[in-house]
């Protein structure tokens, strides 16, 4: 099949950095691009396997194949998350399983598997280290993808992968719909006492009928810290935890049970005890016991800290004249009050010092300049996929490196949360430079008003830009190894390091200036902010560990476990898993409950949500290295860039860490950071 030359995907983009021509791409372009791309990819692989190429040329040709399909997939799957409508979702429902089947067909092609096996068994001496690593990766992928199964086994595997692709898409679609449907309507402005005038204006319903409080992805909703009326807080919390689990058209529970069951069957087919074992075997943790063992090691101390925090907050609740125990919808409100009273930190009062543009330019960008010599130049001439998106050319002393797209604002067509992704991967083989995007979900201010961030949103921006640096500073030959193409339990490491810089005193001093007066954040507020960030670690660690251990529980079941399960069994399974792990606190629900756990039932973190704290071991140890070596100095940044950020997946990640640190990471800095010395 030949693609019509007028289709925007028919040829590589001739725009700067090969950025996709978003202004010309329409929904009707995807289906023919996918059809032609799959056909072209198969033909390229056929032609490649018909030749007897030297190993190096074979690897280059294999990694160069499928570029038409890759261009279309990169744009499509990014926009499904950032700007989806019913038409785009219809294409997703049709093609996600077909694309999954196509990639299976390539990976499982017996001719390709045999070629890789022969080369891997006796690698030619002229291959360099990255080529040898690619051979090892291809061989490992083949085995993990079922290439060693018999014909019947491979057929069943393809069926499983195709159905799982459909189900994870369905989970995402229903979760987004239910999240929108469960936005909390409030009739009177008095019921929103505690919100600022700007927040109140944003909450005003478009139909003029009262006010609407939309929900965000995690369990804890940001407005709970501000809302003074306990009944309204209860309504918001209960709406949040109902998502996907209340019956009706958008219930996700039957879908997630089926996903967990099929994943267990697939793992058994591939020779693994369970899905978690299959996943973690390919991560730096190596085996499930190492990953889960660390979570369990941290849990008792985290829960003990959370109980101490709960007792303190209960005292504030009773002082307000409320009887009975602290409820989960009370925690953020009283924790916020405690921070204000004890540390003089009022999250709402601080927002004028965290204006989005200044945080981005004088905080995020300036820190990247200090550490890596990067410069950022606005490129309003480059087409973008939404009016909210801005483009920046990124360069260093050697010249242009890539393009950065920034998409900060929430919209109904955008999934919740925050993330980094790539439209174009860096590759010396393909001659491509990276085009990366950061997506946040900051409420969009009224026309003419500045966007003011919460402390958490500042942290998120620095975090996601850490992923961006991993993509922008990549310097690898094969696109497969570009940027963030590393194990899940390593990928969060660079982003968590960058997150830490956002609140270093010299960085804060640059960007934390009052939006109206330009005055710097007062010294006492800076001190309070640092003290407050150390407070509440019991809650934050426990809610995270609960979600990570819940993820592991879902993915450590045997095939058939959920064959006769009903939607209500989801809640019972979840409660039992949390109780067994010792993290079942009524006041500290998991960061994500099962029915809206996008990361593991709709995203790529199934059995790998533990990776955030696994990566934080590396992150805390790295921050300590920077402190020992003079802090945010260019020499330190260059060392981190050379040994870690530029390498992507082209080397073993723990080898890269050892080259950076001179030894393996130690857990003690993490325990000190999170107040878990007793762990």
Describe this entry's structure for a reader.
- The chain is α+β, with helices and mostly antiparallel strands and 679 residues long.
- The protein is built from 26 helices and 7 strands.
- Strand 4 and strand 5 form a beta hairpin.
- Helix 4 packs antiparallel against helix 7, helix 15 (356-372) runs parallel beside helix 16 (455-472) and helix 16 packs across helix 17 (488-501).
- The chain is globular and about 80 Å long.
- 46% of the residues are buried.
CATH topology value of one domain: Neurolysin, domain 3
Q: Per the principal axes of the C-alpha atoms, what is the gross shape?
A: globular
Based on CA atoms alone, the radius of gyration comes out at 25 Å
Q: So, CATH architecture of one domain?
A: Orthogonal Bundle
Distance between the termini: 60 Å
In CATH, what is the class of one domain? Mainly Alpha
Share in helix: 40-55%
Query: What is the residue-mean pLDDT, rounded to a whole number?
Result: 95
Percent of residues in β-strands: 5-15%
Defining traits:
679 residues, alpha+beta, Glutathione S-transferase Yfyf (Class Pi), Chain A, domain 2, Neurolysin, domain 3, five-stranded mixed sheet, two-stranded antiparallel sheet, 7 strands, 6% strand
């Amino acid at each position: 099949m030949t693609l019509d030359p007028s289709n925007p995907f028919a040829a590589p983009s001739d725009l700067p950095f090969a950025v996709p021509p978003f202004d010309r791409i329409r929904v009707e372009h995807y289906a023919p691009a996918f059809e032609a791309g799959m056909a072209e990819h198969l033909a390229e692989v056929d032609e490649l396997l018909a030749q007897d190429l030297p190993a190096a040329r074979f690897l280059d040709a294999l990694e160069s194949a499928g570029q038409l399909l890759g261009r279309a997939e990169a744009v499509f799957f990014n926009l499904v998350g950032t700007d989806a409508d019913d038409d785009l979702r219809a294409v997703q429902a049709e093609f996600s399983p077909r694309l999954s089947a196509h990639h299976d067909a390539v990976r499982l092609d017996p001719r390709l598997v045999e070629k890789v096996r022969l080369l891997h068994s006796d690698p030619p001496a002229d291959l360099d280290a990255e080529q040898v690593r690619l051979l090892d990766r291809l061989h490992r992928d083949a085995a993990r993808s079922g290439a060693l199964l018999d014909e019947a086994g491979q057929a069943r595997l393809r069926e499983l992968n195709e159905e799982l692709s459909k189900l994870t898409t369905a989970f995402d679609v229903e979760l987004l719909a239910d999240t929108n449907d469960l936005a909390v309507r409030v009739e009177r402005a008095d019921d929103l006492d505690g919100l600022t005038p700007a927040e109140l204006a944003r909450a005003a319903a478009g139909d003029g009928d009262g006010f609407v409080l939309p929900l965000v992805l995690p369990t804890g909703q940001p407005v709970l810290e501000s809302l003074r009326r306990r009944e309204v807080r209860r309504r918001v919390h209960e709406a949040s935890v109902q998502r996907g689990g209340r019956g009706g058209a958008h219930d996700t529970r039957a879908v997630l049970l089926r996903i967990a069951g099929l994943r267990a069957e697939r793992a058994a087919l591939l020779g693994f005890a369970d899905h978690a074992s299959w996943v973690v075997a390919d991560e730096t943790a190596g085996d499930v016991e190492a990953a889960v063992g660390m979570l369990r090691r941290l849990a008792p101390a985290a829960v003990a800290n959370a109980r101490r925090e709960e007792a303190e907050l209960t005292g504030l609740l009773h002082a307000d004249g409320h009887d009975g125990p602290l409820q989960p919808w009370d925690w953020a409100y009283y924790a916020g009050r405690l921070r204000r009273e004890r540390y003089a930190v009022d999250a709402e009062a601080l927002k004028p010092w965290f204006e989005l543009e200044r945080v981005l330019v004088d905080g995020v960008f300036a820190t990247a300049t200090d550490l890596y010599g990067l410069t950022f130049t606005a490129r309003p001439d480059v087409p973008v996929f939404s009016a909210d998106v801005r483009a920046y050319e990124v360069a260093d002393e050697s010249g242009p490196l890539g393009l950065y797209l920034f998409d900060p604002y929430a919209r109904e067509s955008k999934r919740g949360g925050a993330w980094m992704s790539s439209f174009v991967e860096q590759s010396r083989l393909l001659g491509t430079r990276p085009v990366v995007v950061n997506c946040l979900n900051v409420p969009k201010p009224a026309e003419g008003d500045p966007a003011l961030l919460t402390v958490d949103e500042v942290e998120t921006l620095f975090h996601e830009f850490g992923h961006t640096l991993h993509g922008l500073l990549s310097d690898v030959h094969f696109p497969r190894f570009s940027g963030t193409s590393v194990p899940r339990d390593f990928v969060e490491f660079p982003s968590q390091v960058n997150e830490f810089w956002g609140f270093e005193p010299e960085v804060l001093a640059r960007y934390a200036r009052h939006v109206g007066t330009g005055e710097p954040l007062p010294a006492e507020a800076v001190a309070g902010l640092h003290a407050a960030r150390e407070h509440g670690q019991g809650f934050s660690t426990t809610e995270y560990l609960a979600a990570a251990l819940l993820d592991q529980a879902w993915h450590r079941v045997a095939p058939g476990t959920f064959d006769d399960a009903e939607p209500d069994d989801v809640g019972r399974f979840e409660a039992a898993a949390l109780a067994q792990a010792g993290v079942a606190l009524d006041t500290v629900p998991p960061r994500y409950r099962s029915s809206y756990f996008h990361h593991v039932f709709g995203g790529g973190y199934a059995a790998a949500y533990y990776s955030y704290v696994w990566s934080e071991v590396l992150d805390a140890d790295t921050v300590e290295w920077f402190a020992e070596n003079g802090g945010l100095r260019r020499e330190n940044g260059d060392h981190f860039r050379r040994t870690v950020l530029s390498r992507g997946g082209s080397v073993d990640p723990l080898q890269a860490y050892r080259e950076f640190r001179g030894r393996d990471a130690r857990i003690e800095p993490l325990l000190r950071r999170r107040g878990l010395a007793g762990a």
